[in-house]
């Protein structure tokens, strides 16, 4: 396959950046999209140009490192598929493909296609956990969890923290990411004692990091490679309001 | 003197393991450790390198205990460590199925599965702790699979006849890692852990014989800096990427371990690598990594090839009578659930006979028709849905309709830095946990045991044993201008300068691919003396070419991914040579190490306990210089070594 790439190049955070055009003549339909970038980078390196920087690691759709917008869509055109598992058989010979970093004010560009998503870690640090210090646990069967609750918790917990939801959202909101963690822990009995404090602290950190509010456009769930359902945001909102109310009552 | 003319050093006399009844060894060790006064823990600083299951859980737990922790990872977030990709599950001797499981049986299975090349004391401790791990993870909110009654579900895994594997669909590693990551972030928020993401350890700092810090490079700014502490924990994973193509993440590397090895830590059993039987086939020269299909699929999938050579009919058109379910035929007791090393070699053998399927005849079928027929598609979807999806995404084929095609690939490394019972390396103050150490799996790891070991080390073992070291040594702070610190910094700076100034004609990846190919060819699934000697001749030549002709664009003071890779490949070259030497010297077959010269009449691995019942711990003497071999003799007081049989 012969493909034309238009790739965002930006030397560092302070550089203005620009799109640059490249041709790859020897792509194969069995390649993953990242392997296409590997081929391009080998070519650039041999020709004395700087290769394109991009985040990637597991290349099997689970680490959440890859973070590019392909033809205007985070992770590209295939539904429920991360960039590393997007294969070129979904493109046609001769296609022109644009490749940009995830765009959001809270995800500043570091270089080329690499962005800084450390705000996600700060949101988790604010309350995205169950306080269960090592050694303090009762037997695993002490508390049964109904299967449907466990399954719903799992579905939400499958979030890989890639940030596609933020990149897809017109408001740059991380509500899907946030709602996924709130739902995961909120569905489980182990998550109940900190349910209120968790949602308040995580929302405060989300807002402080500059992520926007949710206006229910649903772009996030559409772009999510793990198909986190939109209703985790309903749970987020419900839990947030309940926590605010109970705070006011106890104040 | 050539590299292969290694010398024999003193045997390892003390493994710090208590003797006496094995059931109470860990209990007695825990009672024997000196404790650190809680008020003093705040003054003690521990560095943890790597934030996977072992490192993440260790960092979180050490901070919970009150130590000051600095945690480092090369990824942009600790949540992305490669433990995240583990699919199948985690073993624990809970006996929730009432099917005869026990701590002793898990211990027995693991010692036997490791082909009698692991230390009994460590393995027993692992089996004991396995139960607490599940409790801990459930308390953290890890969403394990459950039955309708609300209790935890289990599945079977290779190498075991009981059902002791806990799982979270096909994403068990992800869910366990997120549990550890969340515990870690909780400590970050509480101020107990300082997190250094996008940092790579490039050197170990050893002061007066003790590990006292690391030199790390900030991958964004390129700045290299020393970080000093009272002890260092390496949790930096395995070295499977020496083969270039493996199921490891692209960034996985041996640098942290190798730098410690060069500073005096012995490296044990480097040739013990695990080839996983069920990976998606290579599709072409562009291939950058391999993707595993969880071993749990062998619970219900049946492995077969056509009976006839070169039969390239559509698999669904091949009648039952013309199929060879070779695992079921050769190993009727365990069938498709034989351990990984055995399943991999059996697949290689049928392909060598010319009965393989797919490109180049390097594949076998993994067929789900029978289970779909028996349980219905929805039940199969619930169990394996995401794995089937992943397969389809990568290959473009629908495994509900046509059998998967799989082939073995490098997956895990049992070898690693040598550690004693306390998980301390031969450098005092340097502890090694998880896949980075050599400790528990012998010559072959059983499925669902990596997650168990990582979390046992990180949550329970290390936080106890490191306290004993810290209570005993009472370190004075190290001066930033200490000659050992300056020397480590200068070494790092010089290596980076060298890589950037060669400005040759070949890319880093081209060297890495060539090295990987060489290793797969000669130090892969089957090893021979001639092949290993050939590799030992070729590796130093290729390494020399690398240091003369590699091209690393860009500078050292910016994000430079080529430079990161170049440093890692430079270390892989040195490791590769040691792996081949270790494989050459171990003139027996055991577990994942199969020497063609040492097999039984029916082609199984023939162990040689008389000569090789030891862990081979190698001492570094210089790049390309013959190393020194130290043997840790293995004694089996509880599980008598036998020829492993899964027939």
From TrEMBL, chain A:
Annotated catalysed reactions: a quinone + succinate = fumarate + a quinol
Cofactor binding: number and manner: Binds 1 [4Fe-4S] cluster. Binds 1 [3Fe-4S] cluster.
EC number: 1.3.5.1
Cofactor needs: [4Fe-4S] cluster; [3Fe-4S] cluster; [2Fe-2S] cluster
MF-aspect GO terms: 2 iron, 2 sulfur cluster binding; 3 iron, 4 sulfur cluster binding; 4 iron, 4 sulfur cluster binding; electron transfer activity; metal ion binding; succinate dehydrogenase (quinone) activity
InterPro entries: 2Fe-2S_ferredoxin-like_sf (IPR036010), 2Fe-2S_ferredoxin-type (IPR001041), 2Fe2S_fd_BS (IPR006058), 4Fe4S_Fe-S-bd (IPR017896), 4Fe4S_Fe_S_CS (IPR017900), Beta-grasp_dom_sf (IPR012675), Helical_ferredxn (IPR009051), SDH/FRD_Iron-Sulfur (IPR050573)
Alphabetically ordered keywords of this record: 2Fe-2S, 3Fe-4S, 4Fe-4S, Iron, Iron-sulfur, Metal-binding, Oxidoreductase, Tricarboxylic acid cycle
SUPFAM superfamilies in the record: 2Fe-2S ferredoxin-like (SSF54292), alpha-helical ferredoxin (SSF46548)
Gene3D superfamilies: 3.10.20.30, Alpha-helical ferredoxin
4Fe-4S ferredoxin-type domain span: 150-179
Keyword Oxidoreductase: yes
A Gene Ontology biological process term: respiratory electron transport chain
Domain 2Fe-2S ferredoxin-type: 1-103
PROSITE patterns named among the record's database cross-references: 2FE2S_FER_1, 2FE2S_FER_2, 4FE4S_FER_1, 4FE4S_FER_2
UniProt similarity note: Belongs to the succinate dehydrogenase/fumarate reductase iron-sulfur protein family.
Protein's recorded name: Succinate dehydrogenase iron-sulfur subunit
Organism annotation: Pseudonocardia dioxanivorans (strain ATCC 55486 / DSM 44775 / JCM 13855 / CB1190)
TrEMBL record, chain B:
Entry's EC annotation: 1.3.5.1
Active site: 340
Pfam family, one: FAD_binding_2
Upper classification of the organism: Bacteria, Bacillati, Actinomycetota, Actinomycetes, Pseudonocardiales
Cellular localization per UniProt: Cell membrane
Keywords associated with the record: Cell membrane, Electron transport, FAD, Flavoprotein, Membrane, Oxidoreductase, Transport
Domain FAD-dependent oxidoreductase 2 FAD-binding: 45-451
The protein's name in its UniProt record: succinate dehydrogenase
